[in-house]
Amino acid sequence: MRTALSIIVPAFNEAARIGPTLTALQAALPSIVPAWEIRVVDDGSTDDTGAVVEAAAAAAGDTRIVLQREPHRGKGGAVRAGMLASRGDLRFLCDADLSMPVTELPRFLAQVPATCDIAIGSREGEGARRVGEPGLRHAMGRVFNTLVRRLVLQGIEDTQCGFKMFTGAAADAVFSRITLDGWAFDIETLVVAQRLGLRVVEMPIEWHYRDRSQVSPVRDSLLMARDVLRIRARAARGRYDVPRDRAATEARSR
What long-range pairs does 251-254 form, CB within 8 A, spacing at least 24? Predict the structure, then answer.
């Protein structure tokens, strides 16, 4: 049976949160899509993330929960590995903390591929709802997005939301080209998608802030700013350029 939907969950030291996320996804998916898999990409965790995933799959007797172990490279590296290993007709990037209610998922399925190749969750714009986010964190995010829009990627209000759906063909075309392993991989993903001529839409969602002790706002913001400059330099050198006729054929009929 073909897999209609692959859900890719990058996870680094998420032993405390990955169990409830898997439980929520398992409960919801049967009524949403007929054939699915959940692929947890363990990004070289040093805690029991992998063991929790294996235990959840064994307890449910469900082979559709897949653990993919990878060396630690960063979220971008984990997402890239998971997307390219998946065979779903549609592929959904899902943060391990499930900060978006799973009830939002059918809205993505209604858009891809009917109206677009890629639908990205957005915490900005009309209809979006942020719950519990500290004001300073939101302000820092808006400053960063302004930098992104001015330097490399116009027209996208929220590049960093961890919920994005791709057609299988779009995922293969995009993730075979991105190289960044860190947090800025989302930006490179969308830059490549634009250069490929793919249709990208933003989906306003409800999003709940979860404290992420792994994230250092100052350090990671500086690293992301550095990577934005790398993307800009690569774009200026034509690293992301693909002839439009070839790009459209490759990304939509692969």
Answer: 251/117, 251/169, 251/170, 251/173, 251/174, 251/196, 251/197, 251/198, 252/117, 252/167, 252/169, 252/170, 253/169, 254/168, 254/169, 254/172, 254/173
Mean pLDDT of the 155-179 span: 97
Do 159 and 141 contact (CB within 8 A), yes or no?
Answer: no
Flag whether the pTM goes above 0.90.
Answer: yes
- Which tokens hold the place of 101? 């209610």
Q: Average pLDDT for residues 129-135, to the nearest whole number?
A: 94
Which residues are identified as catalytic?
A: 186
CA R_g for the chain: 17
Q: How far apart are CA 93 and CA 75, in angstroms?
A: 11
| The pLDDT of residue 124 | 94
Please report the domains of the chain, with CATH numbers, ordered by start residue: 5-251 (3.90.550.10)
**Among the listed residues 54, 71, 44, 45, the one whose alpha carbon sits nearest the alpha carbon of residue 19:** 54
Considering Cα of 83, then 196, then 254, then 5, what sign does the dihedral take?
positive
Contact 162, 121 (CB under 8 A): yes
Query: 41 near 82, Cβ under 8 Å?
Result: yes
Neighbours of 36 (CB within 10 A): 19
The CA-atom distances, in angstroms, between 173 and each of 133, 140, 176 are: 34, 31, 6
